[in-house]
From TrEMBL:
Residues 1-25 form the signal peptide. Gene3D superfamilies: Acid Proteases. One of its GO terms (molecular function) is aspartic-type endopeptidase activity. Residues 91-427 form the Peptidase A1 domain. GO terms for biological process: proteolysis. Keywords: Aspartyl protease, Glycoprotein, Hydrolase, Protease, Signal. This is Peptidase A1 domain-containing protein. Belongs to the peptidase A1 family. Pfam families: TAXi_C, TAXi_N. GO terms for cellular component: extracellular region.
Amino acid sequence: MASSARTIFICFLVLLNSISWPAKAAAAGIRLIRRDSPLSPYYNPNATVSDLATAAVESTMERVRFFQARQKSAFLNEDAQVRVRAGTGEYLMEFQIGIPAQPVYAVADTASELIWVQCAPCPTCATKRPFFDPSASLTYKPIDCSDSSCTELPTSYCSRNQVQCQWRESYGDGTFGNGELATETFTLGSLFESQTIPNVVFGCSHLAYGLDDDESGIVGLNRQRFSLPSRLRVSKFSYCLVSPNDDTVGSLLILGSNAVASGSSNTPILTVPGQEAFYYVTLEGISVGGDRLPIPENYFQPTKNGAGGFIVDSGARFIVLQRRAHDIVVKGVEDRVQGLKKVYSRSREIHLCYAATYAQLENTPQLTFHFKGADVVLTTLGTYFLQDTGVWCLGVVPGDSISIFGNRAQSNYNVGYDLEKNTISFASAECGTF
């Protein structure tokens, strides 16, 4: 009798998952956890302040290399095989996959499209943490080679005589993830009401080479077809990142109707040919302590060869500025900070450091980024980071041509993305109180 009941239940779930649902979540509130926070499953209690600072700089520069490689591929009209490594991401998203649900952590990334996770079995995967096990789910369904999801995803492929669609992400440093493309039931959020969404297309990686121990997957939040907002058919999302020194609470990502994606400070999202996925905006200038710096506006504009531009990004830790603009900002801050002792930086990418206390830094001139239609005043912790005990550095690094508004600068702001109006909004907020 029990066996018959279970068979009926399984048939019901399979039928439920086979229906072509509209896949629209009214609102999903999802906790984001900073990778190096004690709340993170990847937290390393032995990491020193210096270790964390070095890792932050390295991951930011890796992010720069990623964007520049994508720009080059778009300009040369090449099939862009360079993808973001999850290790360069900063914020982990908690969600569940399958029925019965299995908990998963993956990087929330505004520059990526496909959702993918490491799956069991994966004999070559570095991490020893539990993977998503598709064999334990009643609703896991591989995608056929004839399916439009397989034919339209740039990183999918089918070998001769193959029935199931395969997927491969190749990274610029020779590492890769490889597996099958499938659909599965996702359960998102617990802050408002959990949303269960069937038939979400994702990559299930069974083969990995060179990935780090804490690289478990990515949730794409860009504007392309296979990103999470597109899969949910929501037109807006927002996040509110807590202060970098707040390790007691997580940050918040909201998708759908409850997202705050409009206000008095909105800047248009630009469309750059070949790079429509990224969130390019217009930066008109930068001020230090109310003084507008002499930076030509064209320093932040995309060039005809596909380089340059200014991108709002969740993955880069620090602000990245086109090299000439970077030098002007560093000098502008240095000229206006009085009474603090300059000290040597451990990193060649970080050009301005002070021996100071946090209280002393709070009295230094603030940086303001003047976007078209929106002025964003950086907090002290959005401007400086602790490189070593008693040493604070300006969190701005040089890029060859590209500029990026990193996540640290976005902390304690509600950042809203309206994908219908093509705008990004910024509103000052105490994100730790949400």
